[in-house]
Amino acid sequence: MKTTLRGSRVLRTALLAGAAGLCIAGGAQAADPMVKACAKDGQFVIGFSQANNAEPYRQHVNDELTAAAKEVPGFTLQIADGAGNVNTQTSQVDNFITQKVDLLLISPFEAAPLTPAVKRAMDAGIPVIELDRKTVGEPGKDYTAFIGGDNFKIAEEAGKFTATKLLPDGGEAAVLEGLPSSTPAVERLNGFKEGVKANAKIQIVAEQAADWVPDKAQTAFAAMLQAHPDIKVLYASNDMMAAGALLAAKGAGKDVKIIGTDGLPGPAGGIEAVAKGDWAATFTYPTGAKEAIEMSKKILLDCATSVEPTVTVDTTAITAENAKQLMGK
Amino acid sequence: MSDQKISVAASPAGSSPAAQVTAAPKHRVDPLAIVVRFQSLIGLVLVAIGGVIFSPRRHGEILFLNPDNIANIVRAVSETGIIAIGMTFVIITAGIDLSVGAVLGLSAVVTATMMISGGFGLIPTILAVLVMGVVFGIVQGTISTRFRLEPFIVTLAGLQAARGLALIVSGNQYINISYGDGPGLAPPVFAVLGERLFDNTVPVATIVFIIFAAIATLVLNTTRFGRYVYAVGGNERAARISGVPVSMVKIAVYAITGFASALAGIVHAGQFNFGSANDGMGYELTAIAAVVIGGTSLFGGAGSMVGTVAGTIMLGALANILQLNNITPATQLLATAAIIVLAAVLQSLVRRREGLGR
């Protein structure tokens, strides 16, 4: 690690000189590249400040990023786990700044608390790509770019899907919320409610927080079914909670249409659950990992002078129709 | 727990003037006891040396010793450090306070709510939050002493209560603090908690931590109250017999942890412009780890504030050097575990040598 760091400096200086020479030779001095030390075949360290490795979705992001970074010769990816704590995450970003990483990727655990740390990175001349969650400010100005899905919109899609496809004639629905007062939990809850409004005959009879985890979801949904035996649809704010809710529905002998969120791949993921017919649907929350590494390549290797400030990766509705063909992906 | 306690007279790990209650004169100094007394300082020095040796270098500069890096280390531990200082008082009395992290969250939420939607000024907000923390501690201490309940149980309930209250106050939403002049905005001076003073070197959060540590050290080492704290933890019955107001002292130490948690919550809100009911989760365990590594015994009667501060910074420095070298969080957890066990084993050896059989 250390050697690559040190080696990369020397190499980069040499390359920089070469690149500068090329630039002048080309005579095209339209705009400076975003990173002065960029070079086609340089060695670069990318620091990724992850919000919380304990969440399966985030582990999935780490895996995809690691795989995408491996494809690029010259990229070294360092992942720091903020462990769901804004203080820890702030200090890790500061560590990356101390190390002078060439580019910072970050999924801030919460927006406002990580904003000053992101500003410090930008001030130190490190480009910052925000993944999945934003800090306060404008992409392209306060940080380089945002790549991610839109929690509110994804949940709203699930709400519309419920209103038109699952319960066209109305009925009772319930919601399992993530960790109360966390940004994605609030956005997904509000988004789903907004989407369901498309059908006035649907009532949301119960909302409970299950902190993103399956065991709490099972307990909460079992209690909901006791209180409201006629619940027809359950919206779970992530796949893990949907899995817990399914156990509760089976235990109560009820046929409830369950919707997950995230659409994780793999044997315990949401795509398989829909393919097996256990859930009605899950709405993917794309990681944006490929896009993030692509953009890093543009900045560090291709000497881009600017990048797209906002890249929204769209959700895919995974339903009985398409789940089987998406399983292998 | 304390029924078979013999005097922890000239206790090794804490300069305990109070222990004269049942003094057993010691003629020789146990070298191991000296080590235990300064174990966290020794640990801090060792981690620092390790940090220098294993630090990545850039242009010959040792990154670990880079002033920005040092500032980052001491900033990151400020909140848990403030809590650990309060926790030291409680643990010396052989108690424990599990509610501290949750009270930090509650305090951050109340701070944000009062200034943003309540329209209160900075000073009234800070005073109200500190009073709230103290009252929270007094209630816990009173329940514990009045009904003879284990503090572990009472403060476990306190943890749940504080998280619940925080969710109620915040309406299950997180509260961003924006600055400016007018309704719904906090006074810009509050944001100073996230900045650095003295030519942008020393984080303000760290300054709060250091001042609080200094005051706490004075209280513990030079006041009658400090002697009482050691006496209650060393031998409660003996302390009661010799006229120490045991219940009052116990209630007071929980008031101190309540105050410390509230102070940490205010620092948190100011540093991160934010209040959420989830803030400070798990801080109680980090604080207990720092106190134990600092040489304070969970059996009570012995401990030192300087040790706690060194233990806190040591854990922060350890996390920092591991990340600078891109070593996984798993290793960090295992290293912390090893250090806690080592600290506890050292203490236990000293106790055994003194014939305390524990």
Structure description:
- Chain A is of the alpha/beta class.
- Helices cover 44% and strands 19% of the residues of chain A.
- Chain A contains eleven helices and twelve strands.
- In chain A, the strands form two sheets. Chain A has a six-stranded parallel β-sheet, with helices on both faces.
- In chain A, strand 1 (44-50), helix 2 (56-70) and strand 2 (75-81) form a beta-alpha-beta unit.
- In chain A, helix 3 packs parallel to helix 4 (111-123), helix 5 (151-166) packs parallel to helix 6 (183-196) and helix 7 (214-227) crosses helix 8.
- Chain B has 358 residues and is mainly alpha-helical.
- Chain B is built from 14 helices and six strands.
- Chain B has helices at residues 31-37, 39-54, 67-76, 78-92, 100-116, 122-146, 151-170, 204-222, 224-234, 236-241, 246-272, 283-293, 305-324, 329-353; strands at residues 57-58, 61-62, 175-176, 196-197, 202-203, 274-275.
- In chain B, the strands form three sheets. A two-stranded antiparallel ribbon of chain B has the order 1-2. A two-stranded antiparallel ribbon of chain B has the order 3-6. A two-stranded antiparallel sheet of chain B has the order 4-5.
- Chain A binds chain B through residues 1-2, 5-6, 9, 53, 78, 80-81, 83-88, 90-92, 94-95, 97-100, 110-113, 115-116, 136, 179-183, 186, 209, and chain B through 56-59, 63, 66, 68-69, 72-73, 75-76, 79, 167, 170, 172-174, 176-177, 194, 268, 271-274, 276-279, 281-282, 316, 319-320, 323-326, 329.
